[in-house]
Amino acid sequence: TPVKIAVAMGDGIGPEIMKATLKVLTAAGANIEPEFIELGEKVYLSGNTSGISEHAWNAINSNKIIFKAPITTPQGKGYKSLNVTLRKSLGLFANVRPVNALHPYVPTNFPNMDVVIIRENEEDLYAGIEHRQTQDVYQCLKLITRPGCERIVRYAFEYAKVYGRKKVTCMVKDNIMKITDGLFHKVFDEIALEYPEIKSKTQIIDIGSARLAAKPENYDVIVTANLYGDIISDIAAEIGGSVGMCGSANIGKNVAMFEAIHGSAPDISGQGIANPSGLMNAAVAMLAHIGQPEIADKVKNAWLVTLEQGYHTADIYKEGVSLKKTNTQEFAEKVIENLGKN
Ligand code: NAI
Ligand code: MG
């Protein structure tokens, strides 16, 4: 029987890249049954400040797997980020974001880059403790807990172990935030002792992200707090080729959510030119997660072959390297043609 998943088409480029990705999944024979849910802009503008309809909650709670295109959070007061709401209320504590260069097929200055960023996904400045203190003073509080640190650090080391990775780097700013980031660092050191076969190292986030941008090949798995992870994963994706290339898995105890790392890209939406690769990679991670690794490999290989052939969307297109600039749907068609190749 097909695995039921809650599917959100998203806003901006969301529906364009989701349509393309679902087409590929169907052609690949993924044994899934999408249940479409309403999330995002329309729900917000209907007066629901959480951005999530009641039907969506029911579908999420019964299906436990969410496949989500990026959504737009409307500007203005009172709208809560639904990404934060979903991650927090579903306990999606780990945000796993792999970035690897596809040299020489996709232009990048860093041919040997192969990094996985594991971002704590519920705490830190995203815990939602933000308020106006007095007329002119506004506060956002950083929340770091020992169980939260233990969960994410252990997840990072287990991930490294399972995927045969050699090194985990912790990035925090404990020279300044001695108590909160200090706890993250301390827990990292404690748990690292349980994994003597995996190298461990801590770097202050500012120099760490600078070095990542200069020599990404020196990094393997990175574990970090929520805000830092948000920032360095966009940097990593962009220097790896494009922010449009990377997918993510948001992992919790009972529920998992798969999405691209980027947003709804209003600047290019409606043109049909967005790169669907990030969402396709998220789909690959989802298929592996729900026990369909053969289909996951089939999609991943066809995607790689398509990039190797030089069919590139505008964000990664480069004269002399690419064969043809494709739009979103053409790219998906090529991936479908390549199913079964590797
Ligand atoms: P963004 O990631 O949407 O776009 C940043 C830049 O990257 C833009 O120039 C865009 O054209 C480009 N880009 C992004 N994805 C691309 C793709 N697949 N192919 C080609 N180019 C791509 O970030 P921005 O502009 O800061 O945010 C736009 C909206 O998205 C906001 O409302 C924000 O709240 C929302 N957002 C939603 C997320 C989610 O649903 N998970 C995550 C991040 C932002
Ligand atoms: Mg982000």
Describe the fold and architecture.
This protein is an alpha/beta fold and 342 residues long. It has 2 domains: 1-92 and 243-342, Isopropylmalate Dehydrogenase (3-Layer(aba) Sandwich); 109-240, Isopropylmalate Dehydrogenase (3-Layer(aba) Sandwich), CATH 3.40.718. Helix content is 39%, strand content 20%. It is built from 11 helices and 14 strands. It has helices spanning 14-28, 41-45, 54-63, 82-89, 146-162, 180-192, 205-214, 226-240, 277-289, 293-309, 328-337; strands at 3-8, 32-37, 65-68, 94-100, 114-120, 130-134, 137-140, 167-172, 199-204, 221-224, 247-251, 256-260, 311-312, 324-325. The strands form 3 sheets. Strands 2-1-3-12-11-4-5-10-8-9 form a 10-stranded mixed beta sheet, with helices on both faces. Helix 1 crosses helix 9 and helix 5 (146-162) runs parallel beside helix 6. The model has no long low-confidence stretch (mean pLDDT 96). 1,4-dihydronicotinamide adenine dinucleotide (NAI) binds at residues 13, 70-73, 83, 243-244, 259, 262-268, 274-275, 278, 315.
- Helical residue percent band: 25-40%
CATH topology of the largest domain: Isopropylmalate Dehydrogenase
Number of DSSP helical runs: 11
Adjacency order of strands in the biggest sheet: 2-1-3-12-11-4-5-10-8-9
CATH class of the largest domain, named: Alpha Beta
Give the uncertain stretches in residue-range form.
none
Gyration radius (Cα, Å) is: 20 Å
- Would you list the SSEs in sequence order as H and E? EHEHHEHEEEEHEHEHEHEEHHEEH
* Bound molecule types: 1,4-dihydronicotinamide adenine dinucleotide, magnesium ion
Mean pLDDT: 96
**Total number of domains:** 2
Provide the β-strand percentage band: 15-25%
Instruction: State the fourth-level CATH superfamily of the largest domain.
Output: Isopropylmalate Dehydrogenase
**What is the global morphology?**
globular
Distance between the termini: 28 Å
Largest sheet: 10 strands, mixed
- The CATH architecture assignment of the largest domain turns out to be 3-Layer(aba) Sandwich
Number of strands: 14
Secondary-structure-based class equals alpha/beta
